[in-house]
Amino acid sequence: MQDTTSTYKMQEVLELSVEGPLIEAPNFDDKHAGECQFDISSESSGDSYNKIPVPDGGYGWVVVFSSFLLNFCTSGASYGYGVFLSYYMDSGKYVTGGTLDYAAIGGLGFGVGLLLSPLYNYILIKTSVKKLIILGVVIQNVAVLLAAFSTKLWQVYLTQGVFISVGMGAICFPNTTMVAPWFRKRRSLALEITVAGTGVGGIVFNLSIQRIIDTANASWALIAQCIISSVLSGVAVMLIRTRRKEVQENSDAPIMVFAWEVFRYPVVWLLILWVCFTMLGYVVQVYSLFSFTISLGYTSQQASVVSCVICVGIIIGRPLVGYASDKFGAVTTAAFCHLTVATLCYAMWIPCRNYATVIMFGLFEGM
Asked: Which of 17, 92, 213, 291 has the least CB density, counted as fewest CB within 10 Å?
């Protein structure tokens, strides 16, 4: 049987593998279009909530390592674009390129893959997690390699903008669902370890890309990124193993590419707006802090250190935020983090005039 799944299926894995009452999928009823109904079983004894055996470790830790490597090569590598952004603007490599062009390329590199999520879900249903990730690895690294030989601005738009994002999306979409089915009590710890791959990758790619640009040029930096990502992603793909078979054997939920019914609920639109504004602020800070440091009169090497400090903050902060979410609730923790970030932007970023403040701001923002 092919190893196929969908986001809807993986959400059910999370429900079935949590100790406690079984909560079934929302009941979309035309009579009650304004509210979301749930059927909650009061049966607390037996195995009604434990249909799927969860190893809570074992080979799951190998899957964690695989997911860590994929985050290292995708989200971690994307942090290196800030170095390329500064290089393109300062060197004038592309005569027709302006600040808005390079910012747009970074935006495409971040957003195109997210827009294609329904397509990735369809491919996932028809094929398997491993095949979709392999497709993403090929697209991403071919795009990086082609970017190294780009001579015109439109080529950079396609390679470092569109195609890299398409490849990263094909990797990240299934990657987010691989680890959770292997764990129950240690799930938060496992997920936090995988996310740390983003921070570690950001440190490695920021420092290495800046060093290669200083000693050679941006083309060699892109080639090096392609080699590193190809090798590590290949190792990750070989280690991937999913638990789709266990899910299908214990689930009657339909496989859905896109659940249009959820858009009938205003709370869904509010959630979408919240995510959009959150990601907007996130991208602005991550991609502009490098150039902001240079604008204060510091060198590109010092700006690379600032980008690395952001990644250090991610490594430290993500586990802490995960722990706080489990203890105080996701909404409360998110509200506190947003308030903290907004305060730091006004209190530290806007009046910032020295390197020490930039370093501390980058650390806090990463956390």
From this structure: 92
Provide the sign of the torsion angle of the four alpha carbons 140, 141, 142, 147, taken in this order.
Answer: positive
- For tokens 């304004």, name the residue: 34
Contact 69, 197 (CB under 8 A): yes
Partners of 27 in beta bridges: 37
Tell me which CATH code domain 7-17+52-258 carries.
Answer: 1.20.1250.20
* CA–CA gap between residue 122 and residue 344 (Å, rounded): 41
Read off the pLDDT of residues 241-263 as tens digits, 9 standing for 90 and up.
Answer: 887 777 666 666 666 767 788 88
Question: How many helices (H) and strands (E) are present in the chain, helices listed first?
Answer: 16, 0
Side chain identity at residue 158, one-letter code: L
Of 183, 127, 113, 116, which Cα lies nearest the Cα of 5? 127
On average, the pLDDT of the chain sits at 79
Query: pLDDT by residue (tens digit) across 175-210?
Result: 888 888 888 777 777 887 888 888 888 888 888 888
Q: Determine the Cα–Cα distance for residues 270 and 244; give it in Å rounded to an integer.
A: 32
Q: For the chain, what are the domain ranges? A: 7-17+52-258, 267-367
**Paired tokens of 274:** 């919240």
Contact yes or no for 84/160 (Cβ under 8 A)? yes
The model's pTM is 0.76
Smallest CA-to-CA distance from 284 within 349, 356, 209 is with 349
Query: Residue 197 and residue 229: Cα distance in Å, rounded?
Result: 13
Going by C-alpha positions, the residue among 107, 159, 113 that lies closest to residue 283 is 107
* End-to-end C-alpha distance for the chain, whole angstroms: 42
Handedness of CA 39, 44, 46, 50 (dihedral sign): positive
